[in-house]
Amino acid sequence: MSLTAHIPSHRKPRRRASKVALRAGVAGGVLSTIAVAGAAGPATAEPVTETIEMPTLTPTITAGLAASFAQSAEATQRVALGLELRAEEDAAAVKAARTAVKAHSEAEREAKAKKKAEEAAKADRAEAEATAERASRSSARTTLTPLSASSGSPSGSGSGSGSGSGAPTYSAPSKATGSAASVVAFVRAHVGDAYVMGSTGPNAWDCSGLVQAAYRQIGIDLPRVSGAQSTAGTQVSLSNLQPGDILYWGGAGSAYHTAIYVGGGQFVGAQNPSSGVVLRSLDYDRPSGAVRVL
């Protein structure tokens, strides 16, 4: 026996190959079993048998739901009708506003056109009167007969006349009496008033309107227009005028202007828009003739 046989070896004893193989086979079998079981899944799991119960629709519930649906539909329809009505009202209001604006614009245009036409007509009348007045001054007129040296001093003279001036003098009396005085006073009181075609007072006149008003205030109604006034009385000579006589320019029956003789070789008449009612000498615009009403 060796001297070292009783001393244990410090190395681990070797395992036998058979034991190692056995242990490896057992481990492999266990792992294979686990793998197969996992792959198969819960083959033995119990099926789900639990159910959910739905509520039973009774006639009462069904009727309530139907009523709710009907009310909701009716409310929706009312809202839709209301919106439709409001849209129609808004459209009508817009249309009415546009119509009103258009009517207002048309009314303004018509008013402007009417005013323009009136102004044009007024200007035409004024121009016609001015033309007639210029024509009357340039046409031949009846010459007033002057007094002779033996007739004594004249009772009146034309504008700018005086003693020894050589201007014509007139035999007509210079003072009015009775109704003639009222006619003269009336027209003299309106000297300075405006001339407006077609006006008969109280502060604006045309020529025949002033003559008619002067006689009307003493109770005599004369025709309204100059042509008729020029034949409303007895024709008198311009050399024999009396205060209150009606003077006219143009032909008797077709005169275009009239005035009142106030004495002293002067007359008062509504001349034209630029002059108004004026006091003038007969020499300023000699008349064509005269008629006596009083």
Please summarize what this structure is.
By secondary structure, the chain is α+β, with helices and mostly antiparallel strands.
Would you kindly provide a written description of the structure presented here, covering whatever features stand out?
- This protein has 294 residues and is of the alpha+beta class.
- It has a domain at 149-159 and 170-292: Alpha-Beta Complex (endopeptidase fold (from Nostoc punctiforme)), CATH 3.90.1720.
- The chain has five helices and ten strands, in the order ααββαββααββββββ.
- A six-stranded antiparallel beta sheet has the order 5-10-6-7-8-9. The protein has a two-stranded antiparallel ribbon with strand order 1-2.
- Strand 7 (257-263) and strand 8 (266-270) form a beta hairpin.
- Helix 3 (178-189) crosses helix 4 (207-216).
- The protein is rod-shaped.
- The model is unreliable at 137-172 (pLDDT under 50).
Secondary structure topology:
Elements lengths: L16 H24 L18 H80 L17 E2 L11 E2 L7 H12 L4 E2 L8 E2 L1 H10 L9 H4 L4 E3 L9 E4 L7 E7 L2 E5 L6 E5 L7 E4 L2
Parallel strand pairs: 3-4
Antiparallel strand pairs: 1-2, 5-10, 6-7, 6-10, 7-8, 8-9
Helix pairs in contact: 3-4
Keywords:
294 residues, alpha+beta, endopeptidase fold (from Nostoc punctiforme), two-stranded antiparallel sheet, 44% helix
Structural class, judged by helices and strands? alpha+beta
The side-by-side strand order for the widest beta sheet comes to 5-10-6-7-8-9
> Could you tell me the mean pLDDT?
76
Number of strands: 10
The CA-CA distance between the termini, in Å, is 205 Å
Quaternary state of the chains: single chain
